[in-house]
From TrEMBL:
Organism: Streptomyces tunisiensis
The keyword Transcription is annotated on this UniProt entry: no
Keyword Hydrolase: yes
Keyword terms: Hydrolase
Designated name of the protein: NUDIX hydrolase
One function term, GO molecular function aspect: hydrolase activity
Pfam families: NUDIX
InterPro entries named in the record: NUDIX_hydrolase-like_dom_sf, NUDIX_hydrolase_dom
C-alpha cells in the first residue's frame, strides 16, 4: 500500500456562501455521503499561505512573536503570509514575506513541507520553505501596522525550538511543522535532497 494523499471529490448537490470577509469566506456545501445521505459541511475558504523557516549560519531560525486574537495569545512564529494574488508563485510570495517581516533575504530556497492547516474545517494550504544563505535586505524596512506594529524579532537555535515544541510551549503550526521537518530532513537524506523551491504544488497551482 502506498501512503500518499490522493485527490477525490464527492458529489455536491448545492452550495451557499453565508459570509464573505476581506480575505476569506465561509461556505456550506450539501455533500452526498457514500451511503447516499446528503449532509451539510461548513468550512472556511482560504486563498492559501506561505511560510519561511529561515536558517542562518549559526543554526538559528528567524522567528517573530505576534498577537493572534482568535487564540488570545502572543505566538512565536516563522515569517508567513497569504497568497494574495490568485496563481501567484509561492516562492515569490515567500521572498516578499521574509523581506517584509524580517528584512532578510536568502540565497538558497527549498520546499520543506506542504500542509493543510485544518482540513476538517478550512481549505487553507500552506507551503513551508527552507531558506538558507541569509543576509540583511537592502532598502527601507517595510512599514508595519496593526498586530505587526507590536511584533518582536529574534533568532533562536534549532534545538531550543525543538525543546519548546515538545514541551508544549510553542504552538504555531508552521513553526512546529517547519522545525520538526528540518530535523527529520537532516536525519534522513539531508537538506540538499529537499524538493526544489519551485516544485509543483497541486493544492495551489501557480505560474512562473
Amino acid at each position: 500500500m502506498t501512503i500518499k494523499d490522493t485527490p477525490e471529490e464527492w458529489e455536491i448537490r448545492g452550495t451557499q456562501t453565508p459570509f464573505v470577509g476581506k480575505k476569506t469566506s465561509m461556505r456550506t456545501d450539501e455533500v452526498v455521503m457514500p451511503g447516499g445521505a446528503v449532509v451539510h459541511r461548513d468550512y472556511q475558504v482560504h486563498p492559501g499561505s506561505v511560510a519561511v523557516l529561515a536558517l542562518d549560519d549559526a543554526d538559528r531560525v528567524v522567528v517573530l512573536r505576534q498577537y493572534r486574537h482568535p487564540v488570545r495569545q502572543k505566538l512565536w512564529e516563522i515569517p508567513a503570509g497569504l497568497l494574495d494574488v490568485p496563481g501567484e508563485n509561492p516562492l515569490h510570495a515567500a521572498r516578499r514575506e521574509l523581506y517584509e517581516e524580517a528584512h532578510v533575504k536568502a540565497e538558497d530556497w527549498r520546499v520543506l513541507a506542504d500542509v493543510y492547516t485544518t482540513p476538517g474545517g478550512c481549505d487553507e494550504a500552506v507551503r513551508i520553505f527552507l531558506a538558507r544563505g541569509l543576509s540583511e535586505a537592502e532598502g527601507d524596512r517595510f512599514a508595519v501596522e496593526d498586530e505587526e506594529a507590536d511584533m518582536e524579532l529574534a533568532r533562536v537555535p534549532v534545538g531550543e525550538l525543538v525543546r519548546g515544541v515538545l514541551a508544549g510551549d510553542l504552538h504555531n503550526n508552521c513553526l512546529v511543522v517547519g522545525v520538526l521537518s528540518l530535523v527529520a530532513a537532516r536525519s534522513g537524506d539531508g537538506l540538499d535532497a529537499l524538493r526544489p523551491a519551485e516544485a509543483p504544488w497541486p493544492a495551489r497551482p501557480f505560474g512562473a
